[in-house]
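During the second half of the funding period, the structural biology subgroup turned its attention to how the target accommodates small molecules. The most pressing case was 6-O-phosphono-beta-D-glucopyranose, which had performed well in the primary screen but for which no bound structure existed. We therefore specified the complex as follows and requested a full 3D prediction, including the ligand pose.
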Amino acid sequence: IPVDPFDLVVFGGTGDLARRKILPGLYRRYVAGQIPEGSRIIGSARGDMDDAGYRDFASEAISEFLDGTKRDPQSVARFLDHLYYVPTDARGENGWPDLAKRVRADVVQAFYFSVAPSLFGDLAERLHRHGIAGPEARIVVEKPFGRDLETAKELNATLAEHFDESQIYRIDHYLGKETVQNLMAVRFANILFEPLWNARHVDHVQITVAETVGVGGRGAYYDTSGAMRDMVQNHLMQLLCLIAMEPPYRFDPDAVRDEKLKVIRALLPAAPEDIVRGQYRGRTGKGSPKQASYSEDAENPSSTTESFIAMKVHIANWRWKGTPFYLRTGKRLRGRASEIAIVFKEVPHSIFGDEEGWRENVLSIRLQPDEGMTLSVMIKEPGPGGMRLTEVPLDMSFAEALGEDGADIPDAYERLIMDVIRGNQTLFMRGDEVEAAWAWTDPLIAAWEARGDKPKGYDAGSSGPEDALMLLHRDERRWREIR
Ligand code: BG6
């Protein structure tokens, strides 16, 4: 979908996110022909730099974070012509008049706040006082959106002083992932799944976001955050909402977000015995490299922050009553694998008797790596051996299905930034959604803090603490394997 020429200002323009995601992502969209000539990308931060310096910075970021097959020197050079830099001081007055001269009033305006949330208010206020942001300007903000309900409400109130909700784009980059959007297409563009998509036919749902990385380098943030705030409150909740929500009446931002909000509001508080928190222990590698323990990676070595969490969650509504949703996420696990698995119930009566190899149907939705979906079905084992059943996958790899283009699936940030420019808020969190998510997580966190609960240790490179396995064993179920 074509976009109009725009001015995009990236505050925190020399920061980590700009380097890793925003600038390489914008380059990729440029190559795809989505950045119209006449558009400007204006980096801004406190440090002094000129346009040429910023172009060098962006060029290095592109070389570092895009592999050689995804860039070429001529198009990089043409892309860099669209880049500018204006130093501004978020808390002072320096630079703002210069920025006012650079940002045009007659094109789409977007301001990416890739800075600490404590600066959101200062930036928003100055953008107005200096007459930079027009009535249709859009702002993009990143997580963490607060650290509890109170701070999220404060942030929402601060932004609301300067911008209308329709101008605010709260990024949850999980919503920009190809498979996550495909989840909506699969659910609502096919007749096959929807009739089965309820407690009558779904035994349980598993959502796993497993990472191999530790918290190295981010200890100071992570010590005060942990997996619940860092991953569950946002990414896992968003995935849960997309699976559990009712069909929106239209694929329209508020229609979709209304349905997601209803799911969050219908979540029952998780019982203490249904939550398992873990923290990784190091491994001195024989044959494999040494992996540090959480206490070595942390800022505060005695931190009781969880680097892993598993929980059983219930949704109190007609569709899902009685179907548990098991959520699990952690760092330093044995594989990087994110998957949603819809595990269907058994057939009501097996005409084949007690088949040993019998398995339930599972729809597995892989977010990464190897994006795609697999539906496992039972068939007759080929050959003359009589009626023996075996499980085969109906496999759909998105990269394969879409041919060459598919192999080049855009990164979540690329897609989301272009949605901002197009003015499409569907894949962004609304203020009330974020607040409702905190309202659900806050009491759970407060309860384990009040109990003085300590996370269980688990070995780096494992599947998490033993107790997490028990969470499903207790219910006579088992986790899908993390590969
Ligand atoms: C971020 C978290 O939001 O998501 C990180 O702060 C986490 O801790 C990251 O590593 C995971 O994102 P992805 O896209 O690599 O799965």
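Two results from this model are relevant to the next phase. Residues 431-451 form the longest helix (21 residues). Residues 143, 173, 211, 230 surround 6-O-phosphono-beta-D-glucopyranose (CB under 6 Å).
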